[in-house]
Amino acid sequence: MNRIATERKRLDLTQEELAEKLNISQKSISKYETGARKPSFETLTEMAKLFNVSTDYLLGISDSRTGNSGLFADTPFPRRTIGSAIRLWIGKTGFGDDEIAEMLGISEELLKSYYSGESMPLETLVKLSEICEVSTDCLLGLREKTRPKQDGAYPFRFDPEISRRLKDQMQRMGESYSQIAAAIGIEEEEMFDFLEYGFVPHISVFAQIVEHFLVSSDFLLNRTGSTITIQEDEEELLLSYRALNSKSKTMALSRIYELEREEESLVAAKNRYLDREGKSLPSSGTGGGTMVG
Asked: Which residue ranges form the domains of the chain, and what is each CATH number?
């Protein structure tokens, strides 16, 4: 049995009760216990403290409940808070806060608010990445060492249009970061990092986000303006359309529009003889009961 489940049951806790203590969703606990997902570092350490065992033990790395080198021995790089990560890398530049703020085109007070955890706009993050000479995932506390430049720029620069589209979908569904994160089974912080900065913990998470928003992945990644996902039975038709020349495409679209208008006319004609409950109304000139269609 999964050790997280074993330790939870040892403390006589339900998944819901453990989730509440860890301030995460019950769905996340379920995924951890089935092995579908690994907990984040913060959640892992909180569980280790709660269960009074080592993180290595919970991960199945060691059979020792207490470990040989302390509670958090041999754990992954501990994610820093965004504020502390930004402060760390700015400190390495040798510039003062006033100088950094001037280079970013913001006030020193606003810069200090980022130290306190206020979210930094994407464009500011990218500028700071160049000033500190580290990739943006370092500034967010996701990595301990910077990624090298590629084609003269640091990787992991997020397309602002992707962020806008994601937020539009979130607004369309009337959901918050926490609601989407709970529905997908990830941490709220992970969801925030994706919507704001484009950092996805795993491709399977992105697939769940696409499914949750009911739009195509190409749309969310700003590769197309269409939100529609092509179904298997539509693919052959689409490929055939793409193979047509410009004139034939125009003729095909014209015929499709004609069919749409014909269908709309048929529906409108049918609805003229139905009441609100879908029952037939008397047709003009007959005195009653005639159904159309």
From this structure: 3-59 (1.10.260.40), 82-139 (1.10.260.40), 160-220 (1.10.260.40), 232-293 (no CATH)
